[in-house]
Design goal:
single chain, 129 residues, alpha+beta, globular
Length: 129
């Protein structure tokens, strides 16, 4: 069983490395960003069909959803499913205690935090009932 756990951890790290590559490439173009991996890979219950869900927060992103997606997918390696919010959108969602966002990021892996948003997210999650 020990070998199976090691293989599972190695596979998870391999998937997270893809998301880290996405974060590195996006930061080169966007500057300061925060990126979390979330979903099944972050929780550890992924399977062979799982992709890595990644939420990127930046000061500015294209307003139109298709333009935003096109930009984010430009840096996403195969198997990474990026989503993006501006810092203002993210902070507004936190302020409203957006259930979808908070549930998604309850189990997360911080990949990069140039914007210093992890402590804010952690505080909001700790305040929830």
């Amino acid at each position: 069983m020990h070998k199976a756990l090691e293989e599972r951890r190695a596979e998870r790290e391999k998937l997270l490395a893809r998301a880290r590559k996405f974060a590195e490439e996006a930061a080169k173009a966007l500057g300061a960003i925060t990126v979390w991996a979330y979903g099944s890979v972050a929780r550890g219950d992924f399977n062979i069909w799982s992709d890595v869900d990644a939420l990127l927060v930046a000061e500015r992103l294209p307003e139109h959803p298709l333009d935003r997606a096109s930009l984010l997918f430009r840096w996403a390696p195969a198997g990474v499913e990026p989503r993006g919010l501006t810092r203002a959108e993210f902070e507004k969602a936190l302020g409203k205690r957006d259930a979808q966002l908070l549930y998604a990021l309850k189990d997360r892996v911080l990949l990069r935090d140039d914007l210093g948003l992890e402590p804010l997210l952690s505080r909001v999650l700790q305040e929830l009932p």
